Amino acid sequence: MARICKKKPAVCTDEPLSNSNVCQKMALLRSILSTAYGPTGRLKQIHNNVGGHVLTTSTSTALLKQVDMSEPLLKMISTAVQHHTARYSDSGLFMGIFMLRLIENAQKYNLRTVAAAKVYKHFVEECNTYLKGDSCGCKVPVDFTSCDSLIALACSMITSKPACMLNSKETQHISSLIAQAFLYSIPCNSSGVTCFGKTVTIGIEGQSVSDSSVFPGLLVDVPEMLQIVDLKRLGSGPYKVVVFNVSLSGDISEIGDVALEIHRGVDPEHDLLQQLLKLGEQVVKDKVRLFACQKVVHPILQHYLRKHEVVVIERLGLALMEPFVQISGAQPVASLYSSVPAEAYGIVKGFCFQSCGSRELLQLLPSKDAAVSTMVLCHRNETMLEELKLTCQRAEHVLRLTLREPYALLGGGCTETILATHIKHMNQSKGATTSAALCVSQSEFLMAAEAFCNSLQSVALSLEHDGQVCLIDLTYGHRWVQDIFFKTCGCGLVEDRSNLEKTPLNTAYHTFSPVSLENTDSHPRILDSFSAKLNALNVAVEMANFVLDLKYVIKDIN
Amino acid sequence: MQEECVSLQVCVSVVGALECVVRRCLGPDGGSVLFTRDTGETLITRHGQSLLNTLHLQHPMARMVLDCVCAHAKATADGTKSFILLLATLLRGIEDSHMHRKGSWSIPNLQNLANRLLAVSRKELDNIVTHKITPYASLYCSHHSYKLEGSALDLLIGGYISGRVGIGQADVLKRVLSEFYHKVNQDQNAVETISFIHSNFSFLHTPVTGLPIGCSEVIEGLVVTCDWSVWTEPAGSVKALILYESFGASFAAVGENISVCIQKDYMHRSENIMKQKLASLLDLQVRVVLSSVRQPESVLQWARLNHVSLLECVDSAQLDFLSNISAAETLSYPPLQHLVMLKYCRRVQLGGHRYACLGTFSHTHTLVLCAPAPGLLDQIVCVSQGVFAMLQHLSESFCQTQSPCSDRSQSTLSLQDLWGGIMRAGGVLPVGGVFEFLLHYFLLNERNSCDPECCRLLAEALLCLPRTLYAHNHRRFLNFQTHFLDDLKEWDKTKERESEMPELKFGFGFNESSASGLESVSGKKQLLVSVLQCLHRLLCVGAVLHTRSPLCAGPQTHSEEEEEENPERSNSTKITDA
């Protein structure tokens, strides 16, 4: 019996937000996140003090996953951001910075928790209505008839991840690849409920980024002993396919961890091999040209099959099973003791060798329009490749989200400034009635409004890391950088002209309703995911309210 | 063996320490507590009971209080924080009165007082609640029915959750919970619906992280938190097989240390047996298989070939629940198989996960609760569960009081509008200290009370609850009190004259704008009784003996396993009367 030990009483922290240590740590986290934000964000290198793997990144997912928070409060904030990015793949840093700013500002203005929470909640609902409404000035519809907005969305995702280390030409190349892979993953001419296809990503190290490409179908490692000559001998497609998802190694291990007692004269392994060969015979008789197995195939069976001009792919792995089944239409066979049913066979249109940089790969072309493609990404070293792989996967996910809500938000900080301007404008007309409805005093309401708008604008401010002054124009409410080389605003929608009045961000300016630009030929260069940002905005406010609400931290030290 | 004397001061300081933690979390303006473990778990809560449980209280008296609180919470699911506050104030009240009398409270004196207080709770309290407060509440509700927008149920839920979740989330949660109740109820017996939801809540909700609480919803059917291993869209209603064991030969179930004797054709034969079993399923026209364990790959292949949907690794308790609610037919062979008819089978996407959704012929719905992070989700789930526990207690106590009168009218009434009926019968009052003010007033003005001292003690202590609720705005508390007492006096006068009732002005709760919630009178009364019982237990303790031998006190004997789970009990403590 385990020794019973006395439990130690828990450690309590009273009013965690008034504890300077906690605040300091929170400010540190905020500065880590905000310095990593945007295209010119500074990279963070994470390594532990005993050596080992070094990670260079600026994405919230990688950053927060690797960094262990000592403070329970921060741990909770970090978890919330990670859960958001797991779901939406974007706007994690935005959420983190915005949330921490909301908390800081509420303290700075010395707001009552209840007042701050009520007003924040009210404003985020205001933002939701504005963003979902038709008159929204910071939302553009995603046009599926051309690739432009899809590429712009993907491009903004990649440029905001500086750890990918891409130049502008490479960025363009990769963004078009992402858009291409996304288009491949949408099944055509299907009716009813359909699912997205798969995009398999293969990374190749030490190759130039421009060698990256997208292939329809599935790319797998070339099986041993397969020569181009062998493929030529097969003739032209389509080819019959069979795929197994049980081990064909001939071991009797699947019974489990039990002692085996074997009668004299019985040789189960030999029997099993005979059975495998019987299967092989049937497969050859059924004119199968491609024999695939998730696990290991017995060498004798392999030899037999090759002799009869069947291409054998073994150790496909669980991850590739689903795309393989999709492209071939075959059903995985699990039974060794009965003949392969006719329905289980599938078809591929053809094979060909593709050499991607240093690696030779075998491409399997789908028979029907199966929505499977393989993206081969090349980069100079492992760290950058890892970041690029993740970024591409997330960017594709963001593109998929546009199908549900076919909008994108203006990037480059413009959405934040427009939202802040809109809220300030709303407050001017409705402030008094709203504060009465929320049961907070007028002054509290105004201060909380200021805290909210200030937090939004400081997210826009965090995009700038080189000491340049951020401006907001007083007509459209877009974000600008004081630089003679920039002729457009942050998102690229508005062009500069001499009579456009601008003022530094987070300074006092008169309120105005942001004019939305209509009938313009210019397209925004930088776009953000609509769904991701909307969710980030809501979750950030919810989390900020939770944190402000905390009166006690109890730490169990057992 | 160590002996530790327990005096009134010790009790006051122990309960006072608990009060300090709890008072910050009381009411809608209170805050919440973040609880963390070294394992990285975090939990956010305003829930009084879990709060006290997390503290790992050491002092035996504190643990005794905790036991009382838990017993109370188990019955009513409400009022744990008020419990501690009230207890602390009562103890302080007793201490103060001792100062005034300049005499000393000897142990017998204290015990005597405790007995008298308990007697008050039995006699006067019952009397006041039945004859004063209930008519008042009933009158109030009939006067204000035009103002009480929404049904009484919404207000009850609102009153319960307003002090338990963060600001702004109460509205969303209230809407979803009330929608859930109505969809499950479908004009059936409300009492049965509540007890059904209450006892099966763990199967009827699905938690989702990463989304704001506003995304919570109610969806039709029973959601199972795993995805179909084999999925073919079945058309319309289907026959499903519920299964608790693997089709293949599994030796794990037999136990360890076994050896298998392999004969010729062993594999071949075992596969044939499986094939026969599967073929018999097709004869039964089973289109869906729900299994609590993993099935061998060959079963998956069979399912794919025969267009049967297969769901693996379902929680077996949930499968039991499913077979209970949909009148399963049990197959004679093999054991532990049930056949159920399902209205439909679907795939749902919740928070980035694909789950299975099973439609049953009884109106099953699933409550999908969302929160940004797991710690917050626990709070939301806990509150939602608490709502139904509270409603269960309310409906039970209402039925108890009603049944002796007339069975027939009650049953028709509960079928129509249980919650409206409770409201009209005076079973509920607005939140925000109305009950405490009323009881305070009536206790002080009780003319034929046999124990005025105890009544006064109790009456004064009661006010601590509204005082804490309005802690941020003391002027408002005083305002509220004066207005309320004026109204009450007016009401008393008019009642004697039997003339027209004056407008009752109170009940604006915390927010004058938003409709205030309601709370159950019986729950409040139960709270008071529990507090007084706990006080009685506390005051009767003379000394604490610390022993090293295990305690086996009557029926509460803990088994060894249980003891391992609760090691804090191991430093056994005996509380004795001096």
Automatic annotation (TrEMBL), chain A:
Gene3D superfamilies reported in the protein's UniProt record: GroEL, GroEL-like equatorial domain, TCP-1-like chaperonin intermediate domain
Biological process (GO) annotations held by this record are: chaperone-mediated protein complex assembly; cilium assembly; developmental process; protein folding
Tell me the superkingdom of the source.
Eukaryota
Q: Name one GO molecular function term.
A: ATP binding
Query: What is the annotated signal peptide range for this record?
Result: none
Q: Which residues form a coiled coil?
A: none
According to its record, what are the GO cellular component terms? cytoplasm; kinociliary basal body; nucleus
Write the protein's name.
Answer: McKusick-Kaufman syndrome
> Which organism does this sequence originate in?
Onychostoma macrolepis
From TrEMBL, chain B:
Which SUPFAM superfamilies does this chain map to? GroEL equatorial domain-like
Q: Where is the signal peptide?
A: none
The record's annotation in Gene3D superfamilies points to: GroEL, GroEL-like equatorial domain, TCP-1-like chaperonin intermediate domain
| Annotated Pfam families | Cpn60_TCP1
Q: Where is the composition biased (Polar residues)?
A: 569-578
Q: Region Disordered: which residues?
A: 554-578
The GO annotation for biological process reads: chaperone-mediated protein complex assembly
Q: What's one GO MF term for it?
A: ATP binding
List the InterPro entries: BBS10, Cpn60/GroEL/TCP-1, GroEL-like_apical_dom_sf, GROEL-like_equatorial_sf, TCP-1-like_intermed_sf
Which PANTHER family does the UniProt record give? BARDET-BIEDL SYNDROME 10 PROTEIN (PTHR14667)
What name does UniProt use for this protein? Bardet-Biedl syndrome 10
